[in-house]
Amino acid sequence: MRSPVRRRLLCATAAALLPWPVFAQTAWPTKPVRIVVPFAPAGTTDILARALAPELSRAFGQPFIIENKPGAGGNLGADLVAKSSDGHTLLMGTVGTHAINPALYPKMPYDHVKDFTPVTLVAGVPNVLVMNPAKAESYGIHSVPDLIRYAKANPGKLNMASSGNGTSIHLSGELFKTMTGTFMVHFPYRGSGPALLDLIGGNMDLMFDNLPSAMPQIKAGKLKALALTSAERSAAMPELPTIAEAGPVKGFEASSWFGLLAPAAMPADVVGRLQQETAKALGSPALKERLVAQGAIPSGMSPSDFASFIAAETKKWAEVVKASGAKVD
């Protein structure tokens, strides 16, 4: 049975292929376009933005330039876009910036609904529970049950890295701790890239990373994968069980998503053209196969569907934040 998130992704992807209404065309872009990535390079947000940017550059005849602005769980970069007024700045938003953070942070620098215009969902991805192989071996951890047993016997000994407070990587770990009755010390970084470097280097024990950024390190033997956080297995790594299967931790699901958003004042015809060209790029065989092989589920849904998706995800993650007891630390 497909999970609710996966069903919404697939249905919205099909809807994105339907003809869009014709708008009076605004002359846009008239200069290079910035896509702000609110995390450090080498994470999944960055990977997806850099995969999409060349396609949009070709479609619009202007460079689409990636600008990394990490900090505050993605809030720093998102706020920059919310307050931009040049008409040529976009955000590669995430489940963190537009669903989790409003419930996690006591004071937000932006309104995730009023200050943005949703363009399209780019992709959804599962997270993957990975460990430093040498540490996993020394602790005798070869599976999720092993991890739960060790963590219960050694509360606070395991260090859990994340890409920042409020990210799905962080909340996946908090939800796991709540549902298994374990305690691990959380260390937030400014993106998956630096967190993975410390995990590989042995400074951290484990992480619930996005699958696309972790997969190359798993395949290279630099990380040990224990399970996926999604409700279903991934076609990119079909041999890897879910946490719900492997734990077993019944009902566990905590996946990530990434989408293009514009400031609130972006003209409707520009938003429509951006959605169309993004959906076209994501539907092209070359890019689609590349993303699927990395563990992503390409989308391209309409702006209105994306707005509804964000509303549903905001409600869902507010409940997860409350249930987990997660706080900004």
N/C terminus separation: 37 Å
Number of helices: 13
Label the structural class.
alpha/beta
Order of helices and strands: HEHEHEHEEHHEHEHEHEHEHHEH
- Describe the global form: globular
Uncertain segments are: 14-23
Helix content range: 40-55%
Beta-strand content bin: 15-25%
Strand order of the largest sheet: 2-1-3-10-4-11
What Rg do the Cα atoms give?
19 Å
Mean pLDDT: 92
Q: Describe the sheet with the most strands.
A: 6 strands, mixed
Q: Can you walk me through this structure?
A:
The chain contains 13 helices and eleven strands. Helix 2 crosses helix 11. It is globular. Strand 6 (159-162), helix 7 (168-180) and strand 7 (185-188) form a beta-alpha-beta unit. The protein is an alpha/beta fold and 329 residues long. Residues 14-23 have low confidence and may be disordered. The chain has helices spanning 4-16, 44-60, 75-82, 95-104, 133-139, 144-153, 168-180, 192-200, 211-219, 243-246, 268-283, 285-293, 303-324; strands spanning 33-37, 64-68, 89-94, 116-125, 127-131, 159-162, 185-188, 206-210, 224-228, 256-263, 297-298.
